[in-house]
Amino acid sequence: MCSAWRRHTPYMVQPEYRIYEMNKRLQARSEDSDNLWWDAFATEFFEDDATLTLSFCLEDGPKRYTIGRTLIPRYFSTVFEGGVTDLYYVLKHSKESYHNSSITVDCDQCTMVTQHGKPMFTKVCTEGRLILEFTFDDLMRIKTWHFTIRQYRELVPRSILAMHAQDPQVLEQLSKNITRMGLTNFTLNYLRLCVILEPMQELMSRHKTYNLSPRDCLKTCLFQKWQRMVAPPAEPTRQPTTKRRKRKNSTSSTSNSSAGNNANSTNSKKKSAAANLSLSSQELGALQSCSLNPGRDGALCHSTAVTPTGQFKEKH
């Protein structure tokens, strides 16, 4: 009986189940949720070096915003500050690919559903492509989040339209969109602000770590950046002298061997030429040569003749 209630060994969950758990955590949010709650939410589902990217097209052209891990909690909180009461993601026909240290989920039919309570009760369905990269470990947290928005729909209940059917001003207000590409003005303004905040993360982390004033943090960062700019480039690593010596020895030995081969070939050619010359001299019957060595009678020069049989005979 006890074995039936024994706790099972932890197992790896599916990546889509992590999105389901994230949706449940977002539904558990309350109006009293502070920055600590959002930091704990981001720590549970996002890696320390995670990035979140949103791509969409507005009236003035395409937009692409990428924020780091420290700005992700604030992004989700701005969604609810813009009048959203509920937020969840629906993934259909997603594809998973496993790598050495990560799992990639590619969902071409992802829908971000937001329920708005103000300025009016509206359900917004934002459709697009969501690409997620999870770490392949027990925590399975998100490393990269990329949501490309294609289109969106704002749904107003028929009951609200029937209630204000006789009021043209309310109907005109209901006909206007309350979001831009499914995002509230609070979220869009925060993404524009992140363009300035993202490069300042180094200043903020230095201020938090060393408790310096903003001016001192800026001076320190600029000085370190200046040092990196004026620092001389690193010299390329030189190869050990032993290798160079070996290379030289091998080259010299090769050259010596080639020179030796050439010398041998030259000598052999000379010998063959001399042999040919002696044979031709034998055929002629006589060869005269002069030598500086003294002869028997002390003369400086003596002659040598070669007989037709190939024997040498001195002539005084």
Structural write-up:
Residues 250-276 have a biased composition (Low complexity). Residues 232-276 are annotated as: Disordered. With 316 residues, the chain is of the alpha+beta class. The protein has a domain at 15-209: Roll (Nuclear Transport Factor 2, Chain: A). The protein has nine helices and nine strands. The strands form two sheets. Strands 1, 2, 3, 4, 5, 6 and 7 form a seven-stranded mixed β-sheet that branches. It has a two-stranded antiparallel ribbon with strand order 8-9. α2 (35-45) crosses α3 and α3 (72-81) packs antiparallel against α6.
Give the secondary structure arrangement, pairings included.
Blueprint: H1 15-27, H2 35-45, E1 46-58, E2 61-67, H3 72-81, E3 84-92, E4 95-98, E5 102-116, E6 122-135, E7 142-155, H4 158-163, H5 168-174, H6 185-197, H7 201-210, H8 214-230, H9 241-284, E8 303-306, E9 312-315
Parallel strand pairs: 1-7
Antiparallel strand pairs: 1-2, 3-5, 4-5, 5-6, 6-7, 8-9
Strand content: 25-35%
CATH-defined architecture of the domain at 15-209: Roll
Structural class: alpha+beta
Helix content: 40-55%
- CATH fold description of the domain at 15-209: Nuclear Transport Factor 2, Chain: A
Order of helices and strands: HHEEHEEEEEHHHHHHEE
Q: Please count the beta strands (DSSP E, at least 2 residues each).
A: 9
